[in-house]
């Protein structure tokens, strides 16, 4: 079973959603951390792990 990691962002001010999928956990965590540091309180950033 292959694992995938998805970083999702949601802008609460306008409802815009964006997601990026990674196969490498380290890359996903790095992107999650980067986005979390950049976003203000009107955004949610979520890291999800999935299996295929």
Q: Any overview of this molecule?
A:
The structure is a single chain. The chain is α+β, with helices and mostly antiparallel strands. The protein is 27% helix and 46% strand. The chain has one helix at 25-38, and strands spanning 3-11, 17-22, 43-51. The chain has a three-stranded antiparallel β-sheet with strand order 2-1-3, with helices on one face.
Secondary-structure map:
Layout: E1 3-11, E2 17-22, H1 25-38, E3 43-51
What proportion of the residues is helical, as a percent range? 25-40%
Fraction in beta strands: over 45%
Strand order of the largest sheet: 2-1-3
- What would the average pLDDT be, to the nearest integer? 94
Protein structure class: alpha+beta
As a whole number of angstroms, the C-alpha radius of gyration is 11 Å
Spell the H/E element sequence.
EEHE
Low-confidence stretches: none
Q: Biggest sheet, open or closed, and with what strands and sense?
A: 3 strands, antiparallel
The total count of helices amounts to 1
What is the CA-CA span between the terminal residues?
Answer: 6 Å
Count of individual beta strands: 3
Question: What's the shape?
Answer: elongated
Summarize the structure in short.
With 52 residues, the protein is α+β, with helices and mostly antiparallel strands. It is 27% helix and 46% strand. The radius of gyration is 11 Å and the shape is elongated.
